[in-house]
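fyi for ur records
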Amino acid sequence: MLAFSYDKSFEGLLCAVFEAFKLKKMPECLLATEQVEPLLVSDTHHVEFDNAKYERVRKALINKLSKVALRHLMYVWLSELPESDLIVFRYICKVFKSSQSIETDFADQDVLAVHDIAKKVSRERHRVIQFVRFSAINNPVKDVFNDKEDKIYFSIIAPIYNVLPLVLKFFKDRFADQKWAIYDEKREYGYIYNLHSIEPVSLTDKDDLIINSQVNKNYLARDEALFQTMWLRYCNALTIKERINPKLQRQQMPSRFWHYLPEMKLMLK
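which gave:
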């Protein structure tokens, strides 16, 4: 069994596609560089990243696929599911081998898998957009802003799939006049918007900012706790107790998000 090893980046994957057509060999599995080979692997080809190869495949792919299909491939890549990279790899190879569009050929196993996984990732993206809640905090990473204003709006998420890169544009457009940061605690990375651009941020030297998936109260801006209490009371005042439907509520608002929502604190007690 032939295996390709690469750096597990999307750019490296496109280089692997180039190598497959160059060698006229299709791998049966994709491994990370220095990953231990499975017992059934008889031959391994290491793929080095090459910008020229990457650009050639990328441009060809843009010409062959619609924007929707390209977005679906990125969604599958960000799903982080087992062998998702192999599914994307086989899909791209089939695109280049076929003289016709394969985007709606759902009889093909890989085309159907890309469609189904992309649908799940898209659903998670919409849920994150719906259930992100920002807390006003005193800026813990002042070197990113380089100004005198300390307050920013901070949110913690832990989605099933790696959808944070997919929601940044929405929040940039929605809160263009505010400084905010969103941190994925599951994958330990995040982004900050400083009114000019979106920059990656690490909280490795701010381990005390997040405690039990909640913002440390010592970092909360003045009156933030009061605003959260007011929001909780407002939501409770609008609730019609006779019409509460827990089953439907969990369908529309999965319980894994409740820990991050101020209005659901009473439900967690």
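The mean pLDDT is 90. thats all i got for now
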